[in-house]
Amino acid sequence: MENTGMDRRTAGERRRDTLERLVAERDIWVATAHPDHGPHQVPLWFLWDGRAVWMCTGAGSATARNVRAEPRVHLGLPDTADVVLLHGEAECFPDDEVPGEAAEAFCGKFGWDPRAEEGAFLYIRVVPRTVRAWRGEPELRGRVVMRDGAWRE
Q1: pLDDT tens string 59-103
Q2: Which of 94, 107, 111, 112 has the highest local Cβ count within 10 Å?
Q3: pTM above 0.85, yes or no
Q4: Is 5 domain-assigned?
Q5: Structural domain of residue 108, as residue ranges?
């Protein structure tokens, strides 16, 4: 792995930078797996509510089918020079059962309300249990910034 010449960030700096990216970014890679059909990965729009990642997809999509069968998911922000990976379990909300505050925040960020669309949508909420963040080889050690749902200092 290439050394980017960047100084190694402290755990607190990595946490701060990770939280800033979770608020600012639009897309996240979602990796799921189905017991019969295997792995599946797609990018989805996402919202960070300060505790969890919220995404939305068609209720009949492979992602929706997979998280219903196997809720463990991996999420990744799309910059390989500034890696942020999250692992957690998905909680599913049909569009007519999603908490209003989450749906309104999602709509506010993207200007799109899946609840108003024809066809069914599924909101997916993931509270991360583990978060890893690193920029290049100097930060491989200490890349776990959240373990068992608790941010590391």
Answers
A1: 999 999 999 999 999 999 999 999 999 999 999 999 999 999 999
A2: 107
A3: yes
A4: no
A5: 11-141
| Contact between 62 and 37 (Cβ < 8 Å) | yes
How many domains does the chain fold into? Answer: 1
Quick check: is 4 in a domain? no
As a residue count, the chain comes to: 153
Residue at 82 is within a domain: yes
Residue 31 falls within a domain, yes or no? yes
> Residue 58 belongs to a domain with what CATH number?
2.30.110.10
DSSP one-letter string for the chain: ----SPPPPPHHHHHHHHHHHHHH--EEEEEEEETTTEEEEEEEEEEE-SS-EEEEEETTSHHHHHHHH--EEEEE-S-TTSEEEEEEEEEEEETTTS-HHHHHHHHHHHS--GGGSSS-EEEEEEEEEEEEEESSGGGSTT-EEEETTEE--
